[in-house]
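Below is one record:
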Amino acid sequence: MMKVGVIGCGNIADIYFKNSKQYFNNFEIIACADINEKASQSYAKKYNIHQLSVEDLLANKEIELVINLTIPNVHYEVSKSILEANKHSYSEKPLSIEFEDGKKLNTIAKDRNVYVGCAPDTFLGAGIQTARKILDENKIGSVHLGSISMAVPGHEVWHPNPDFYYKYGGGPILDMGPYYFTALVNLLGSAVSVNSKIRTVYEKRIIGSGDRQGEEIKVEVPTTILSHIEFKSGALIDAFFSFDVWKHNKNHIELYGDMGSLNVPDPNMFGGELLMTTSKGGDWESIPTSHMNFGKYNIEKNLERTNEAPTVANYRGVGVSEMINAIENEKPHRCSGELSLHVLDIMDSILESGKNNRKIDLRSECNQPSYFSEEENIKLLKG
């Protein structure tokens, strides 16, 4: 049982604490730290763990792995300090804001013989892994076209402190892109080029909940992005990301092969229903995943987020558990720094392409993670 610490005790932290206790059999979170002592104190009390300073947590010899749940624009510095303390690092997405910083993290990890991992781990869930199996079994043939869509009114609708979504390091690409592009790389392999257009629709946003409800915040990043992405496999994918859409009927991910079509569920969740057809103009075949290990419904109440409801699955933390299993068995892990760096390259290049109005060739590629079978993932779960 590996001992784990958490740095960063914001909104996302609770699901890591909760799921680690409820589901996973190979790690235990024993301490947390945050620059806001009230936040770390609250989680320490709720989950009966130690509240430490960041320095003391990194110096704790019992802790072998640290989960970095800080805000995106300090991911690099915090992950770097974790690795330099000779501990394994698993970060919330993105790996870093700058591509070169992500490269440095992978180099430090290699030099110190420790692992670096990064969310999202949602692609390890039943929805994306079922899609992966369908593609591996060639059920829709070779994928040549596809689309991805992530469009919402903006996180200020539900988040009480949404400022960072609209500052450097935020925006729909860096916030939500990791889910979609990690899923696509898992399904299709590495991308090779992007060509994009970007817009900022609203100059200010109004916070819709919490103590700051009604307060205006300034928007400093693009909030709508359209991009054309070419993959090494030859697949061409159109991507649409926006914080400026009040409502829409677009599917999250659609893939079109030369033998059929596939609708893939929300990559920000772990389960979901797939739809597939293998006849031209034929009816959709429903493929449920709610019976699978990481597809079973486990959200008990609507959290006022448009993507969370009682009929979806949230198993955040499986990426940590899978990485620990890889560490213990001295093998590659799926939520790797290499994969996360390539996803960061895609996102960074999309924004750069939109800014300069030109096609950009990517600087990186990565190994496609292997299929995560039911037989393998059940070994991570408590009996």
About this structure: The longest strand covers residues 143-151. The mean pLDDT is 95. The two ends are 15 Å apart (CA to CA).
